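RECORD TYPE: inverse folding
INPUT: structure tokens
STRUCTURE:
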């Protein structure tokens, strides 16, 4: 039997209950994330981004600007 929203009864939960479940699931995954290792490509990308940030520490976008940009795109 495959696991689904319906088979677990999740589809009958309220939005608030489903959000709480998502948080619990995410926390359980995050707790095990230390066991997951990065691929060489992922590690190289993180190293590249860190080096770029260290070379250009003031080249940033304010959080308020990011939120405004997202809000604008979502209104389209």
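DESIGNED SEQUENCE:
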């Amino acid at each position: 039997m495959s696991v689904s929203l319906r088979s677990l009864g999740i589809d009958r939960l309220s939005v608030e209950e489903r959000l709480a479940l998502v948080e619990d699931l995410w926390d359980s995954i995050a707790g095990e994330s230390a066991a997951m290792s990065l691929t060489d490509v992922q590690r190289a990308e993180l190293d590249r981004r860190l080096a770029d940030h260290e070379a250009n520490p003031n080249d940033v976008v304010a959080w308020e600007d990011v939120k405004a940009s997202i809000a604008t795109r979502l209104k389209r």
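NOTES: The mean pLDDT is 92.
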